[in-house]
């Protein structure tokens, strides 16, 4: 398979997607004290990681995809990069100014809910891409909608953590499946093109 003139930023995006999921899971971990996946003091580290790798890194990957002519990749990656930079700012402001939290709760619900619908629109495009991307985007839709409910309900929040963990794991698989295909010529399950619509 011929190589593109640029290294494939989509691999960076998929990898940064996993790190965004780590950031989301860290946000979710404080209500999940029974599971004790991570210490609450780890959250600032993960938030900063989300800003630069999940936000800025993904935004740059999106721009590189647009330069290559990949409209889907460029739009999705840039959008989620902007989402994570905005998420960082919201979390930072809520930590610095706790009085904002009560008014931000409704906004977080709407934000996550709307991103669920945006992700659903991206999922429709994946129906002509491959099973790997379909898995990532479909589980991300569920994660966003559960996060929207999780602002008000701890069980939804916990479910979002588990679905988000699956979503992040599938994103890691997707990143390496395409990396192996491009660099090694090895085709793993799920990367073959599909056309469900």
UniProtKB/TrEMBL annotation:
It is a multi-pass membrane protein. GO terms for biological process: succinate transmembrane transport. Coiled coil: none annotated. The chain crosses the membrane at residues 42-64, 76-94, 100-124, 131-153, 159-180. Pfam families: Gpr1_Fun34_YaaH (PF01184). The keyword Transmembrane helix applies. GO terms for molecular function: acetate:proton symporter activity. The keyword DNA repair does not apply. Keywords: Membrane, Transmembrane, Transmembrane helix. It comes from the Eukaryota. One of its GO terms (cellular component) is plasma membrane. It is found in: Membrane. Belongs to the acetate uptake transporter (AceTr) (TC 2.A.96) family. NCBIfam families: AceTr_1 (NF038013). This is Uncharacterized protein.
């Amino acid at each position: 398979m011929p190589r593109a003139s640029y290294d494939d930023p989509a691999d960076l995006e998929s990898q940064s997607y996993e790190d965004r999921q780590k950031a989301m899971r860290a946000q979710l971990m404080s209500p999940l004290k029974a599971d004790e996946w991570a210490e609450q003091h780890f959250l600032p580290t993960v938030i900063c990681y989300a800003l630069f790798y999940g936000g800025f890194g993904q935004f740059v990957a999106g721009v590189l995809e647009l330069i290559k002519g990949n409209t889907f990749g460029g739009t999705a990656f840039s959008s989620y990069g902007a989402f994570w930079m905005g998420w960082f700012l919201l979390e930072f402001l809520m930590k610095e100014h706790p009085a904002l939290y009560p008014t931000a709760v409704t906004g977080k619900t709407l934000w996550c809910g709307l991103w669920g619908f945006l992700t659903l629109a991206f999922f429709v495009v994946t129906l002509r891409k491959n099973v790997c991307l379909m898995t990532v985007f479909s589980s991300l839709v569920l994660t966003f909608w559960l996060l929207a409910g999780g602002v008000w309900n701890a069980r939804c929040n916990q479910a979002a953590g588990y679905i988000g963990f699956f979503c992040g794991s599938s994103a890691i698989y997707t990143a390496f499946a395409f990396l192996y295909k491009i660099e090694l010529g090895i085709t793993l399950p799920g990367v073959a093109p599909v056309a469900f619509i």
